[in-house]
Amino acid sequence: MAALQEDGAAAREAERWEGYVDWRNRPAVRGRHGGMLAASFVLVVEVLENLAFLANASNLVTYLMNFMHYSPSQSATTVTNFMGTAFLLALLGGFLSDAFFTTYAIYLISAFVEFLGLVVLTIQARTPSLMPPGCAKVAGAACEPVSGPKKAMLFAGLYVTALGIGGIKGSLPSHGAEQFDEHAPRGRKGRSTFFNYFVFCLSVGALIAVTFAVWVEDNKGWQWGFGISTIAILLSIPVFVAGSRLYRNKVPTGSPQSASNGAVIDRAPSPTGSTDMKEYCKPGDICGVADRAAEVATEPSQELVFLNRVVQRQPRCGALSCTVQEVEDVKIVLMVLPIFFSTIMLNSCLAQLSTFSVEQAATMDTRVGGLKVPPASLPVFPVTFIILLAPVYDHIIIPFARRATGTEIGITHLQRIGTGLVLSIVAMAVAAVVEVKRKNVASNAGMLDAAAPLPITFFWIAFQYLFLGSADLFTLAGLLEFFFSEAPARMRSLATSLSWASLALGYYLSSVLVTVVNSATGRGGRRAWLQGGNLNHYHLERFYWVMCVLSTLNYLFFLFWAIRYKYRNAGVIKG
Description:
Blueprint: H1 2-15, E1 16-21, E2 27-29, H2 36-57, H3 60-66, H4 72-88, H5 90-99, H6 103-126, H7 148-177, H8 185-219, H9 222-242, E3 249-250, E4 263-265, E5 277-280, E6 296-297, H10 309-312, H11 324-342, H12 344-350, H13 356-362, E7 367-368, E8 371-372, H14 380-405, H15 413-444, H16 462-486, H17 492-521, H18 540-564
Parallel strand pairs: 5-6
Antiparallel strand pairs: 1-2, 1-3, 4-5, 7-8
Helix pairs in contact: 2-7, 2-8, 2-9, 3-4, 4-7, 4-17, 5-6, 5-7, 5-17, 6-7, 6-9, 7-17, 8-9, 8-14, 8-16, 12-16, 12-17, 14-16, 15-16, 15-18, 16-17
């Protein structure tokens, strides 16, 4: 009888997902929690969440110029700072998800915070007394920009919204990825599919945002545009909650630096499927009930060997346990940082899609037949391309690559990221050439100071959008999966948030580059390249060439580190 009870207890233990709980904080059970069905709720939520975010962000530069009376460069800087802050705050959301709360709780809290910020912006947009005085813009005249309490309300709404966006970005992708069993090939393939479709759903939300929502903002009023965002993020909450019974939620560890008996494997130049696992523990410890018979390795890996001295010079440093596991975790962080840094420049290029590219299109003929397309709807080109390409990539390109390479992953994460970096170089070169053509048309038509649209179609701008959109598809999905799969289990939300932090730093870098370029080119009484209220007098093409050169140097930096990088989680992970 005792043996039967022990067998039953062992069976129940085997049915549980170790380290995971359900929404009521009970042990998560195999077959009931997790899987693609649970992750599908996250994908639907991502459509609504990104719709709420981009409905405003994609057209915010127009709102600041036309209603808050900012100059083009002031508007561009304000938008990049807002978006940069939103993405950088993803690190906070990721840290809280790993250390103190579940990703489930952080999403719900963050969605409510974003809702509050959007309510503030909606109230201001629909109340004339909370807006700056209106004025009729004429050539050479400047309107008084928003100031005082009205400016305070604008920025309060923007940055409360940014706080909510950051929490969502830091918790939602990792919440979806945690639904898959990484110990099985099917689970790892399912996780890869999830990240591809996460970018797909992100693009679906963006498509609705840059078409329907932008049209409403330009034709019905910004109060309705902010209202769409408010409703979208509010609807995302019950949709997310609807999947509660299916989710498995990773138990927070208390600190990303707390000790654990996670697994470290022999590193490989590509994540190819089967690897030799080594469980790193303190000497004499037993690392996991299921693996008592497994070989326990107490020697650190041979990457960054100078860090091995910390372990070799034990005994311990007071209350701090200098374990092999902790040293290996530090190595992981140090080895992924160069990859992280190499994507910042690409995201600085992407920042142009919501700033100067929109302002360029606003000076051009945006008619398609009898329809006038809002300039902020230009991202329809890259997001449509992503929506079409993502399923082809997941269901045709990846299976073919798996058969061709004989590996589980097919195309490595770093190969995807590298492809995106190359496309960003091409995009900046194309953008510079198109800007030269746009200014030549304005000069030849004698319309350098005219407010009327130039006799050149805005489809010329679509080329840079197409290349940058393609770069975004390859890089973002690759980065999300790269950081999630390479990070220790207790740091995954924080690590995945590095993808968004890269976007944040890219937006900040864009603002810094604009400031530096203006400072360098405006000396000696000369006109700065990116200064004034008329885009036709800017030297935007020169700025794009600078971006192209910097992107090329950045790609060489990436190659140097990518060639030397060895993957951590190439196969099954124990522990």
